[in-house]
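ugh finaly. both done.
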Amino acid sequence: MKKSGFIANRLREIFLNGYWIANTNYRDQLEKITWQQAIHQVENLNTIAAITYHINYYLAGILTVFNGGLLEIKDQYSFDLPPYTF
């Protein structure tokens, strides 16, 4: 299997339908919470919404590279969530 196929399979497993890491996956966990829980701030810890944004920011940047683009993501912007709108 090519490296790209291996990486794609691992990402699919982690985020969509597998239980490769800690017997859980990203989508399964996020589907179980409400938006109120996602934006709830506990002391100075990141919210679930902030962590989700952070992960999606990096995935979007990596996918751009996988599709032949440049790596343009920056750590300093990885937690710059847009304001919540409901």
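ok and the 2nd:
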Amino acid sequence: MDSLNKGIDKAEVTLKWDPSPPGAPDHDLDLIAATYPVTAPHGKPAYLVHFGSRSPDGTITLNRDSKTGQGLGADEAMTLELDRLSENYGRVVLGVAIQQNAGRITFGDVANPGVRITTGRSVLSSEDLSGVPASTAATVAEFVRDGSGAWAFRTLVRGFDADPTSFAALMGSSR
């Protein structure tokens, strides 16, 4: 955060989890960012960033995509350049979905899932998803543009029982 009046210019999101036990199917968790227009902040997303993609204008990029949770540090990483996002967009919702290829898997089935959101050296949020153990997907945070154009952050942990495609359509809905 450069100043209180300016809001958040850029954020980094990381997702980590421990690999499945030997002999068990891999757990594949995915970061998803949904961008909403100012005119419909709780409607259908204008676009999604997930599975190794990036936003059409390059302002939101998934930099790392793991299918197993193996490796040190973050398994998935996403960069959001909010200061470059068109003024037509007023809300960005961040979520995590579990691929359901090997049967129903919930956050309670995955060892040590965690999402960390930072701006510069400041930690905005660090969530272990223990509050949604029976869910297969969850929103974790949102960025909202205020009337002055500045971006504000809010933690938004909310569980869903949905596959990744259905979750992407639901994740920005109002409660």
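summary for the 2nd one i guess: The chain has a mean pLDDT of 91.
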